[in-house]
Write a structure and sequence with these properties.
alpha+beta, Phosphatase 2c, domain 1, Phosphorylase Kinase, domain 1, Transferase(Phosphotransferase), domain 1, 5-stranded antiparallel sheet
Length: 569
């Protein structure tokens, strides 16, 4: 990924007003944030009729430029900026609520993030961002104004007006040589776009002079407000650099085949835990700490496969991002690595697959407990906008205390990495047949509902020992021929309401699936009335536990009556 680069020109003055209530700025972070998060820029215009308009605009711009970089690296630009602006708006609105009637703190806001050749624009109010390309100035935002009467315009949307702020968002591909023109209404309401473009052309080698000339032209044209112009010329949009990326991936060689007793970078190999065509997993002892760790190494079969190497490296990066007692932790060591591998915590115990083999008919309470722990681990992924994509019993372990941990996430999809448009992208659907949601086989975008599907399959399999559609479909065409097999066909003590909850969790159509794991877990804990009520099904099918308890009570009552009759005779 090449580093984005820009030139900046800025000018702002109060004009005919006593105070300048506009704010603006650009943030140029150091690597790697300039690549993973991009470059941020913004302009804001505080509403003069409110209290502290300057503080309102400064708060919006400063919070955006600073807090955006404090959001999680795995979050998309839209999610990160959305969280920041929601927080800013609520704070401004709270100040408005405590202020005198009709006053408070309100500001317009126009911000942008340049990342991987794409400009992410966020806008509310009547400040403006335009794109100058080929001598033509094209607005990228529209003013949120409402006209009352013949001469009066009022802001219809701005930060601080309401508890919820509706911020426009769009994505615009940009090129080297493009110039971004940020202006407040004191500028673009008084001079035409053609003049702005001409003044930038006249001062193309000095953007600060261009910004001053634009503000001076607005004041000369009769501007009765503060005037602010911020110009950002894109020198390098930061598009993916394939050669640099591949060079980075090849920086560390693959390790040789490892044998028990062999030492690599201070790691003494104890034994091999797992081997497949894609990786090897070893139990090792860290000779520096005496701690047992799991070492994962790439398969030499993929030594020249950049996409494979990228995904292998991604797994370690994801593991460092996530902090959950139900996700295996990445072990960070002080010893420099000479080979491509990473270390994870050793979870002593068994895989969920082994647990299921040992317990072909587990108690429902045990199944619920394991499902809830898996869900907690998945939530840690989803909070970071990461979709696991390959959840299955083999990728889950239970330690000696019964704590469940997700141990493999090499197939995970990360929203922020998708925005980077890396030259070694996804190669078809990932995951394991039978546990992968059908829509992924048809090329659907990764979504948390697909992890909900996988969790539903695992719960079904824990209860029945079978897959919910009878077999593992490996293509969209195979899925079309399969129908859900009720869990009760495999295990008669499964209540109808629970069976229907599982059917919804693994629905082939994602629109019919649960939206949240919380809703699914709630429905497997207690009967959902929508599932439990079925006039055509006897109580024995709807709720076996209640049926047998009722039958036992009725039997006890009949025995008591018969005993009473016998004693009285």
């Amino acid at each position: 990924m090449s580093k984005p680069a820009i030139d900046i020109g800025q000018h702002s003055e109060a004009g005919p007003k006593q105070a300048n209530e506009d704010s603006f700025g650009v943030m140029l972070p150091e690597p790697p944030l300039c690549e993973t998060k991009g470059l941020a820029m913004a302009i804001a215009d505080g509403m003069s009729s409110c209290d502290n308009p300057k503080e309102a605009s400064e708060t919006a711009v400063k919070s955006f430029l600073e807090d955006y970089y404090a959001t999680h690296e795995s979050w998309s630009v839209e999610t990160s900026v959305g969280r920041v602006l929601t927080s800013v708006n609520r704070w401004l609105y709270s100040q408005s609520q405590s202020a005198a009637a009709g006053k408070g703190m309100v500001t317009t806001f126009t911000g942008a993030v340049l990342k991987a050749g794409v400009l992410h624009v966020f806008h509310i109010g009547d400040s403006r961002l335009s794109l100058l390309r080929g001598g033509e100035l094209r607005p990228l935002t529209r003013a949120h104004r409402v006209r009352i009467g013949e001469k009066h315009d009022y802001l219809s949307r701005a930060l601080g007006i309401d508890v919820m702020a509706r911020v426009d968002h769009r994505e615009v591909p940009v090129e080297a040589g493009d110039i971004l023109v940020f202006t407040t209404d004191g500028v673009h309401d008084f001079i035409k776009d053609g003049l702005i473009a001409e003044l930038i052309h006249q001062h193309t080698d000095d953007l600060n002079s261009a910004a001053r000339a634009i503000c001076a032209a607005a004041l000369k044209a009769g501007a009765d407000d503060n005037v602010t112009c911020q110009l950002v010329r894109i020198v390098n949009p930061g598009e993916p650099d394939e050669k640099a990326w591949l060079k980075r991936l090849a920086a560390l060689p693959f390790p040789p085949p490892l044998q028990p007793g062999q030492v690599m970078d201070g790691l003494r190999i104890i034994r091999e835990l797992h081997a497949s065509s894609r990786s090897q997993v070893y139990l090792a002892e860290d000779t520096e700490t005496g701690r047992k760790v799991v070492v994962k190494t790439p398969s030499p079969n993929y030594e020249d496969d950049a996409a494979y190497i990228e995904h292998f490296m991604r797994e370690e990066w994801i593991g460092r991002l996530i902090d959950s007692p139900h996700v295996a932790k990445i072990v960070q060591r002080q010893t420099p690595r000479k080979f491509l591998y990473f270390c994870m915590e050793h979870v002593a115990g068994q895989t969920l697959r082994q647990w299921m083999d040992d317990r072909p008919r587990p108690d429902l309470a045990q199944v619920r407990d394991i499902a809830e722990q898996i869900a907690q681990g998945l939530r840690a992924f989803h909070r970071r906008e990461i979709i696991h994509q390959d959840l299955k019993p083999d990728n889950i372990r239970l330690d000696a205390d019964g704590t469940v941990k997700i141990i493999d996430f090499g197939s995970a999809h990360v929203a922020s990495l998708e925005e980077l448009k890396l030259p070694v992208g996804e190669r078809g659907p990932r995951g394991t047949a039978g546990y992968t949601a059908p829509e992924l086989l048809e090329g659907a975008r990764p979504h948390k509902k697909q992890d909900i599907f996988s969790l539903g399959v695992i719960i079904y399999e824990m209860l029945t020992g079978q897959l919910p559609y009878g077999k593992a479909a490996e293509s969209a065409r195979q899925w079309q021929r399969l129908d859900y097999v009720p869990a009760r066909k495999h295990r008669h003590d499964v209540p109808v309401w629970l069976d229907r909850a599982l059917e919804k969790a693994v629905a082939k159509n994602p629109a019919r699936r649960y939206d949240t794991m919380s809703a699914m877990l709630l429905d497997i804990k207690r009967p959902n009335p929508a599932f439990a009520e079925d006039a055509g099904a006897p109580l024995l099918e709807r709720d076996p536990e209640r049926f047998w308890k009722g039958l036992a009570l009725l039997s006890l009552l009949l025995n008591a009556i018969l005993l009473g009759l016998w004693l009285s005779s």
